[in-house]
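Researcher: Good morning. I'm working through a list of sequences from a screen, and I'd like to move beyond sequence-only analysis. For each chain I'm collecting a predicted structure so we can compare shapes side by side. This is the next one on the list. No need for commentary yet; just the structure.
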Amino acid sequence: MRWLDQHVDRSKIVSTVDSVITMSASLRTEEAIGVLPCVEGDPLPDLVMCFTTEDLSSGLWLVASKEAYQEPRVRKFMTFLGEHFPRDGKAATF
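Model: Good morning. Structure tokens for this chain:
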């Protein structure tokens, strides 16, 4: 939102959404521009990436319920991903 506030006139915003899924659906059904993670937008052939910028970045949370985290396979996967996920914004290789 900070990036958006710096680059877009708030009076031009006609709607807002509260989830990536809703944003994706909105962009596919309306004449609009919005911010969407590449992992969501790249596989959608009916969306066109307008621009990229290094200014847009966000963290990623890998979460599990307490119950799920007690499962050894879940804990092992989360540990693996945490050790191999890039911290510098570059693509991960597994």
